[in-house]
């Protein structure tokens, strides 16, 4: 099946267009505007505070050891970041906007304010979205991740919970649950209990490695909340490659648990609690780049939205760490063997790879991509 004709992909394209239309109607340029710094705060396991998960744990605006989250939320760095988007003069997120277009995330548009003319300002009253990356504790030690090496138990009544209970939780529209592995951490269940009690309409996205067994404790917690997305982090469908990337993981355990989650979703829907809206996050790196088509079709066959991302750091695992000759081989393989739909869904991988090539190689690859697109558009049923 052509991935671009799958209902899930068509639906996301419609959401993407709505997001773009909202940005334009608010008076901003889609290529130079992002909603995230105006609505989101991210709290890291070591007390570091940021505004966006895509910037990673290294892009800190401050730390709770020195300032409250409120002070950091409207501190000089946060206001400067927002001002860049207000003026359309991007510095902080220049690379991300170019390579990932993360500012146009279709579902981010759901957070767009009803009255944008009075909303967008360097100073924002309260976050509407919490990215909770509370603890590093994880059952896997993924080669491209450093979160599992980070602290646990930092967030206490004194430095977070007491104030958040009164001044944050009641106002949130969304929570994005990260951490090492959230379903193995008591803070996850505490957060679900507390927020669902005062703010039952809050939407939740939860990122999980699914390397555990679904049990009553987890389903009872999930039953309390409205799920926006359940994001499955699965970076290979090959047992050996999976175990290498996500050591000491077992792919079979993950796939079994995904089936249990699918069964739970059916029961959940029967009870009127809504779908889990599965996404599958695939971090493309040296070991797995060739699996992209297989992963895309696995996702669409299971009605999961495929999210094909790119590993920049650590450099040793990034495809960008290949020589120009080998990067060109990767790009040629993708262009010559992927369908146009697969290439489109792998754009976050293709874009930085093509951009990294020599000027002549880059020009040749872009010309070939343009030719493939023209052939597809003239004969959409054609498999290229």
Task: Give the helix/strand layout.
Blueprint: H1 7-25, H2 36-39, E1 40-43, E2 48-50, E3 62-63, H3 69-73, H4 76-87, H5 94-99, E4 129-132, E5 141-142, H6 157-167, E6 174-177, H7 186-198, E7 203-208, H8 216-222, E8 226-233, H9 239-245, E9 246-247, H10 251-270, E10 278-284, H11 292-301, E11 305-310, H12 324-337, H13 340-345, H14 347-355, H15 359-378
Parallel strand pairs: 1-4, 4-6, 6-7, 7-8, 8-10, 10-11
Antiparallel strand pairs: 1-2, 2-3, 5-9
Task: Note down, in words, how this protein is organized.
It is globular and about 55 Å long. β1 and β2 form a beta hairpin. It contains 15 helices and 11 strands. It is of the alpha/beta class and 384 residues long. α12 packs parallel to α15 (359-378).
Q: From N to C, what is the helix and strand string?
A: HHEEEHHHEEHEHEHEHEHEHEHHHH
Shape: globular
Number of helices, where a helix is a run of at least 4 consecutive DSSP H or I residues: 15
Query: Using only CA atoms, what is the Rg?
Result: 21 Å
Would you count the extended β strands for me? Answer: 11
**Which percent band covers the strand fraction?**
5-15%
Contiguous low-pLDDT stretches (5 residues minimum) are none
Secondary-structure content class:
alpha/beta
Cα(first) to Cα(last) distance is: 13 Å
For the biggest β-sheet, the strand order reads 3-2-1-4-6-7-8-10-11
- Major sheet: 9 strands, mixed
State the share of residues found in helices, binned by percent: 40-55%
Assembly annotation: single chain
Average pLDDT taken over every residue: 95
